[in-house]
Amino acid sequence: MLVVSNIDLKVNAPITSPLEFLKSSNKDYILNINNDYRYMKMSYYVSLHAETIGGKVIPTTENIIDAYRVPVLLVRASKAGVPTLPHLVTDAVKQIMSEFRFPAVTFTVNPFSPNNFKIAHNKSALYRAVKSLSMNYKYAVCAQPLIGHIATYKVFFGKCDSNDERVNEISKKVYETFKIPVCKLHMQHVDGKTHPCGLQHLTLEEISPSDISIISSHVSTILVRGEFN
User: Fold this and answer.
1) Using CA atoms in the order 173, 156, 23, 19, what is the torsion angle rounded to 10 degrees?
2) Is residue 185 a contact partner of residue 170, using CB atoms and an 8 Å limit?
3) Which class is domain 88-145?
4) Hey, what CATH topology would domain 66-83+148-200 get?
5) Which residue in 54, 67, 35, 48 sits closest to 75, CA to CA?
6) CA 149 from chain center: how many Å?
7) What is the pLDDT of residues 107-157, one digit of tens each?
8) Radius of gyration of the chain from Cα atoms?
9) Mean confidence (pLDDT) of the chain
10) Partner of 21 for a Cys bridge, out of 4, 30, 56, 148, CB 3.0 to 4.6 A?
């Protein structure tokens, strides 16, 4: 198994940089560790290159694209048994208002965005949010009702630093479904229940030394066990 990473991992094994891997024809199993897997980012091309030359890779390009598109994330998570809230994909503010009461939360859908979101408490705020997140109505947005509060968690290989078993279970199932090793998950807590509402990349600045130790520990375990599933 070959580890390709832009993160300074602390493991007793060679680590290949993304640029080095893109110049190679290595068909070994590829464990692609990166802070940002978005479409057309370097790590996306690592997975694409691995697939193009006939290798196996985590995560796959299909899972990368699906996980970073909120409506697809929600549909696949729901099919995997994760409870999700209603959502609507549209660029029409009137349609959002006809489906959901205020406040509402809107996420970007286009593959070039950082998957951020905006909360709107009234009509004018919703218009501003949709215009901004849709790149002036060039793309649709994914709207969801905001009936609780949204919290964001760092997730590494399906595990996060939370004492909430609901959060931990969702993190695990999302990883089992999409195999995104490093990300942050947005979750909405509503009346004792928790629902995923979006997945976003981490900036390198957001990854602390303790986070690197956690990621490195997971990678070392995978290398020792030879796991690739």
Assistant:
1) 140
2) yes
3) alpha beta
4) D-amino Acid Aminotransferase; Chain A, domain 1 (3.30.470)
5) 67
6) 19
7) 999 877 776 899 999 999 999 999 999 989 999 999 999 999 999 999 999
8) 18
9) 95
10) 4
**3-class SS of residue 15:** strand
Q: What DSSP string describes 194-214?
A: EEEEEEEPPPGGG--HHHHHH
Q: Tell me how far apart the alpha carbons of residues 150 and 189 are, in angstroms, rounded to a whole number.
A: 6
List of E strands, 23-179 = 30-33, 57-58, 88-90, 104-108, 117-120, 141-145, 149-156
In angstroms, the CA 163 to CA 154 distance is 13
Q: Which two tokens stand for residue 81?
A: 């048994």
Peptide bond before 103: cis, by omega within 30 degrees of 0?
yes
Residue 179: what residue type? K
Do 126 and 134 meet the contact criterion of CB atoms below 8 Å apart? Answer: no
